[in-house]
Each structure stands twice: as structure tokens, then as C-alpha cells.
Amino acid sequence: MHTEVPFRLRPLTGLEKQNLYVGPQTVAAAPRLPGLFEGVKMAPDEVKGGYRVTDFLTYNCLATDTDLYSDCLRSFWTCPHCHLHAPVTPMERVCHENACQPQQEPEEEAPEVSSQRSSLHRLFHCAVCQRDFSFTPTEILRHKKQHQ
Questions:
Q1: CA separation for the pair 7, 136 (Å, rounded)
Q2: Is there a domain that residue 30 lies in?
Q3: Which residues does residue 43 pair with via DSSP β-bridges, in sequence order?
Q4: Average pLDDT along the chain, 148 residues, taken 10 residues at a time
Q5: Does 49 fall in a domain?
Q6: Which range of residues forms the domain containing residue 46?
Q7: pTM over 0.70
Q8: Inside any domain, residue 106
Q9: What total number of domains does the chain contain?
Q10: Cα diameter, the chain
């Protein structure tokens, strides 16, 4: 079996070199990768980021396009539950909202639901059946259609 893969080498531009590595990070522990780098002590690389496996090999140090895009999408946000104020991406915000549960009693949530329902509902008097209802606009149309 013979396969040709076309490729081309070119020097990196200054902007590509500037954004090539993730840079130094706060790293708690080396990742556990079963079957990969077994028996090798991995230490954080202070310049490139990622983990230095050997003198010539650094793992997880290259920045990806998603890293560059997510940095552009960061905006400051304050969590309404724990009052955390931090720059987050939309995905980080969703993850935090799912993990951070409000510390409210269930009794407080019930009135909010009823107030939301009452704001959507309107009083409606049906002239055909001579009854008063509290319906949403959609329910009003369905009720009127029943009388046709």
C-alpha cells in the first residue's frame, strides 16, 4: 500500500510565534494518561506551559484555535447565587450555573412560579358560554375555536 500525503513547510510568522504556546499556567498536578508517558515524571514547563516530559518534548503546550476564540469571548459576569465576579466564556458560565445551586428554601420558589404564571395569564370572559377564565393568549384562542 502506497499513500502520498502532500505537505509544505513554511516559516512561522511573528504573530503565529507570539500565540503558539499556552504560556505559564497554574497547574495542580500532571494529568493521568494511562499508557502514555508511563514511568516518566512530568513537570510543568514555566515558559511554554503544558508539561515537560523530556528535554526535547513538552506535552499540551500548544494553543489551539478554540483557546484563542474563547479568550475573545470572555466577559465579566457575576453569579447571582455565590456572587463570584470573574471573566468567563459562555461555556464556563453555563458550567458554573449548573454547578452553583441557589441556597434558597423551596417555599420561596413557589411564589415566583405563581407570579410568572399570573403575568402570562389574562382574565377572559367568554360571551358564548358566559364563563370567566384566567387564560394565556394561546389558551384564549383554543377556547374560542372550541365554540366554532
A1: 63
A2: yes
A3: 52
A4: 90 82 63 69 82 84 68 81 83 80 54 55 87 85 85
A5: yes
A6: 9-63
A7: no
A8: no
A9: 1
A10: 87
